[in-house]
Specification:
globular; 3 domains; 7-stranded parallel sheet; alpha/beta; binds adenosine-5'-diphosphate; Rossmann fold; 18% strand; Alpha-Beta Plaits; binds magnesium ion
Length: 506
Amino acid sequence: MPDRQPLPPPSPIATEEDAANAPSFDRLPLAAAMLENLRRLGYLTMTPVQAESLPLTLAGHDLIAQAKTGSGKTAAFALPLLTKLNPRRFAVQALVLCPTRELADQVCREIRRLARAEDNIKILSLVGGSTMRPQMASLEHGAHIVVGTPGRIMDHLQRGSLNLESLHTLVFDEADRMLDMGFLNDMVFVARQCPGKRQTLLFSATFPDGVEQLARQFLRQPRTVKLPERHEADKIRQRFYEVSGENRLEAVARLLEHYRPVSTLAFCNTRRQCRDLLKVLRERGFHALALHGEMEQRERDQVLVLFANRSCSVLVATDVAARGLDIADLEAVINVDVTPDPEVHVHRIGRTGRADRNGWALSLASANQRRRVDDIARELGTQVEWHDLAELTAEAGGTARQPLLPPMATLQILGGRKDKLRPGDVLGALTGEAGFSAAQVGKITITEFHTYVAVARQVAEAARRRLSEVGIKGRSVKVRILEIPDETRPETASRANASLRRKPKP
Ligand code: ADP
Ligand code: MG
């Protein structure tokens, strides 16, 4: 995007004023050596998630905490687990599940720093992508704390190289991302191997149904910590554009051309408007999909997979259809029409500017909708910024711009949970010998019968060929690219989406 601001390095403490009012660790029931170590690490005051959760977790409660990246989660779960740890007992007493190797390594490093107050605490990282044998050897030497990805932890449990009998703390870190990565079954398997008498802590930036279910299943009378989203508003940059009736839908295309967001949610007030907008966007070559109430569940799921894994640039939806939709990482929300209800507006734009990134909230209003915008400004308690469509990058006229393409494409594999496919299997089949880098593989979604793998658009065909030729775990698989055909001229949203189900032309 042209004028996106570079982000400052994440800091858990937002301002000096916050820091001055923030509570100190001294008020917590922590050993003197631990307090001293925290001071040495520069942990002078608690971050909000630490201040809210530590009194509860140190008292032994299970916890569900909503907290985003950079909020200081590691200490929020590491302090209670370290406090309970008996270093003289050579057994795994705490297990932290993380979505990726990088996050697991990061958590491991941070716990090591926090554990310095005590000698000889062994913390082991068990993640996929490295060979099993050295990990097994390390386990034989004994570890007090294990941090790892669900798939690899499950492998160790199945081979009997990891024993969780002495475990007293189980942590799900970034639970929503673990679910995004298709780890649900592995997480359930691992949690079931833990002793019933334990403390369970769950951290997640968002709360889709899956996370709630997981919490219901594995936490006991959990306390909940939810931090107000007060800092989020600063990250949403809001602009209003005046349009006339005729140019409204064209204006959406121009906004996309100009701001070039990777993922955009476009809100319409009516289903009819959704349909018309989808048509306009498709005709101009955008990879757009619609979500509406009449869709069957399977189709809805597929649309959401493509949008969430960045294989689709624009999702067009009404408020009703978008209800319950939980997708982080939206670069932009476009209000194709301002809503009459200011609260709905605030809710809509709150879907961007999350996860420590800036987001655009772009709204189109006709002259006679100015009153609605005034209501919104009142609700937000701010002035709104009006901009002129003429400021937007001129279309086609001069230098032809590259079309806005999504960075990823989706491979659909026939085979899913029923066939015991796991994210690690798919990742393994593409990386390593196959020659694709982990960075070229995106989100992996496994449903009962299908697996959806996002891969970098440029290598999609090569990745498809590779999987078709070599298979996964020695089994051959049927793979196709699940694409949105460019030249579709849909009569209705539903028919446009229906083309998803057809095999695209090679
Ligand atoms: P999260 O897991 O929520 O993304 P981390 O636990 O990794 O966040 O913390 C982010 C950064 O902030 C780390 O560098 C950590 O050392 C630092 N940090 C965490 N809590 C505090 C604190 N109370 N005071 C100062 N720095 C902190
Ligand atoms: Mg973390």
